[in-house]
Amino acid sequence: MSNVVIVGTQWGDEGKGKVVDILTEKADLVVRFQGGNNAGHTLVVGGEKYALHLVPSGILHPAKRGLIGGGVVIDPVELLKEIDGLTQRGVKISPDNLLISERSHLILPYHQALDQARENSKGADKIGTTGKGIGPAYEDKSARIGLRLGDLRDLAHFRDKVKEALGEKNHLLTGLYGAAPVNLEELMAQAETWAQRLTPYLTDTRRQLQAAVNRGERVLFEGAQGIMLDLDHGTYPFVTSSNPVTGSVTAGAGLSPRAIDGVLALVKAYSTRVGSGPFPTELSDQTGHDLRERGLEYGTTTGRPRRCGWLDMVVVKTSVELCGVDHLAVTKLDVLAGLPELKIATHYLLDGARIDYLPADYRDLERCRPVYETWPGFEGNLSGVRRLGDLPLAARRYLNRVSELAGAPLGLVSVGPDRAETIILHDYFK
Ligand code: IMP
Predict the structure, then answer these.
(1) How far is the CA of 207 from the centre of ligand 1 (A)?
(2) Nearest Cα to Cα of residue 59 among 37, 101, 90, 18
(3) In degrees rounded to 5, what are phi and psi of residue 374?
(4) I want to staple 102 with a disulfide (CB 3.0 to 4.6 A). Which of 150, 170, 230, 343 is the partner?
(5) pLDDT in tens, 187-206
């Protein structure tokens, strides 16, 4: 396999950073294709811990390249901060190893202001966004009034477009939300820095990607968020504004779906969610609390505590079907050790009827009661285990059941945060 996509099957935070890192070692090019700096991947490379939000993880390895496709929305302030932070730590970043699509859209200060003002105005109904301006930036893209990275090449034209946008945005910010307006001159002063520093990285990434594929390079597509946050297939409206599904590689990076020859789907051994929205298997009891503490379930991007619950296979199965999955990567299995019993949701009960899908209306999903199978728990420290056969029998049974219900074989099992704490069953990029 040479073009492999990694997706998260739940609500994000499945532990993609570590798995991406393992695969990055063998990849030549690592590609982001959707989302923005709402994502947060933690990686440990050479004993050093890095939290990446926008820059593809390939950049941490010499001789590998990172590519940000046109489907990503980019906050130039955050991108430059990330580049500077990495540079200070000795990571070499230049247009030779970081390629940014000239078609990718900018997240501008008025997008963040609107995201936050809107959330604040919603009270109890808020989506619980990361407040990074993701939704408003994608809105402008769809409304065809967005500014793209490529627009930074002509600042006079850029200024005209921002001025026009601000007419509407400031009206909303001040008139509707009582928030402070965004100043054109201040924005343009920043834009000069963005233009000067970022335009050297801009390129037609689709052509670069196609050329890399034609040369037979190994390409890793690093999905952000999870399928339950997909704008079309997730728990709408409590979703993000992009499509984390595999198919998004085509639109967001510009590659034919036929060129994708491997899909690895991440499944955390239990469920978590940040932000609001339905979560059928959520646990508000001591077990939920224990999962959060043992799994260190606090957001990489916002630091918010994550809601925790049992594994929901209605969710995972839906994501596996949508993403054309070859293998599952089950993460954080070690966090379950010590629990006397484990539950797996296989169906829901909706008004007395047994269903095996996610209803489209979130109010129906909120009324769904999970139907559980109960499996015996397992004990012990799993972090030293490197072969499936060395896991406790109950852990193996749990994994087998997950694989059976998902309809996909296991490719990897993570038994601890360290890269070495991994059972590899399928070697991608062999
Ligand atoms: P937004 O993407 O900032 O608009 O937030 C929309 C929803 O997606 C909120 O519930 C966020 O908490 C959630 N979200 C966005 N990005 C991530 C992520 O990378 N991991 C987990 N949740 C996320």
Answers:
(1) 30
(2) 90
(3) -110, 130
(4) 150
(5) 999 999 999 999 999 999 99
Nearest-CA residue for ligand 1 atom 16 is 38
Domains of the chain, each with CATH number or no CATH: 3-93+205-424 (3.90.170.10), 105-201 (1.10.300.10)
Please give the distance of CA 75 from its chain centroid, rounded to a whole number: 16
225 lines ligand 1 (CB under 6 A): yes
- Which ligand 1 atom sits closest to the C-alpha of 132? 3
Rounded to whole angstroms, the Cα distance separating 185 from 17 reads 38
User: What three-state secondary structure class fits 32?
Assistant: strand
Residues linked to residue 263 through DSSP beta bridges, in sequence order: 5
Ligand 1 pocket test: pick from 38, 297, 302 the residue with the most ligand atoms within 8 Å of its Cβ: 38
Nearest ligand 1 atom to the CA of 277 is 10
Q: Examine the pLDDT at 222 and tell me if it is beyond 80.
A: yes
Record the pTM: 0.96
What is the tens place of the pLDDT at every residue in 109-164? Answer: 999 999 999 999 998 889 999 999 999 999 999 999 999 999 999 999 999 999 99
Question: Given the CA of residue 242, which atom of ligand 1 is nearest to it?
Answer: 2
- Does ligand 1 come within 6 angstroms of the Cβ of 275? yes
**Is 403 strand, coil or helix?**
helix
Q: Which residues are catalytic?
A: 13, 41
Which pLDDT score, from 0 to 100, does residue 57 have? Answer: 85
Residue 268's SS3 state is strand
**Distance of CA 407 from the midpoint of ligand 1 (Å):** 27
Ligand 1 pocket test: pick from 119, 225, 230, 231 the residue with the most ligand atoms within 8 Å of its Cβ: 225
Handedness of CA 427, 408, 310, 343 (dihedral sign): negative
- How far apart, in Å, do the first and last CA atoms of the chain sit? 7
Q: Distance between CA 221 and CA 224 in Å, rounded? A: 10
